[in-house]
Design a protein that fits this description.
Number of helices: 5
CATH architecture: 3-Layer(aba) Sandwich
Strand order of the largest sheet: 3-2-1-4-5
Structural class: alpha/beta
Number of strands: 5
Number of domains: 1
CATH topology: Rossmann fold
Low-confidence stretches: 136-149
Order of helices and strands: EHEHEHEHEH
CATH superfamily: NAD(P)-binding Rossmann-like Domain
Largest sheet: 5 strands, parallel
Distance between the termini: 11 Å
Length: 155
């Protein structure tokens, strides 16, 4: 089910995103991870590559801030150019700021929404636009899932 499939994973350089990338690599998928920190991306690439089933699998890293629509769109388009349309888009980029509502500044909520919500929206929209631009015969007939990391873990 996952062998030779392309998976794009935002937030793939750490946490749940990296764990998901490792799991999919161990199942034979080609992986594109997107994150902000180039150093962490390269370290994650080494770890993910060690889980690959064979040497033909690709692990690609792309540095982008998914909270920035232009960067998110460019990263998705680059991933598609390099590895083809993905079978999976795992929106795992996210942040959390623990604290009491009344004690957190509004900027924390804005930053959280920018990354957690709009980052997922921008990447999903970019993928849909790319699919339509490539003139696929019927996008609904293509087996593609847009899911969160938790949905992937339970499927």
């Amino acid at each position: 089910m996952f062998a030779q499939k392309h998976a794009i994973i935002t937030g793939g350089s750490s946490g749940i995103g990296k764990a998901t990338a490792q799991l999919l690599a161990s199942l034979g998928s080609n992986i594109t991870i997107i994150g902000r920190d180039r150093t962490r991306l390269e370290a994650a690439k080494v770890e993910i590559s060690s889980k690959c089933l064979d040497s033909n699998q690709q692990v690609i890293t792309l540095s982008a801030d998914v909270a920035d629509r232009v960067q998110a769109t460019a990263a998705i388009n680059t991933a598609i150019e390099r590895n083809g349309l993905p079978s999976f888009l795992v929106n795992s980029a996210g942040i959390a700021h623990p604290g009491y509502f009344q004690e957190l500044p509004l900027e924390i909520f804005e930053q959280t929404m920018a990354i957690n919500y709009f980052g997922s929206l921008y990447c999903s929209e970019a993928l849909q636009s790319a699919s339509l631009r490539l003139e696929l015969p019927n996008i609904n007939s293509i087996r593609r899932r847009f899911c969160s990391s938790s949905e992937l873990a339970t499927s």
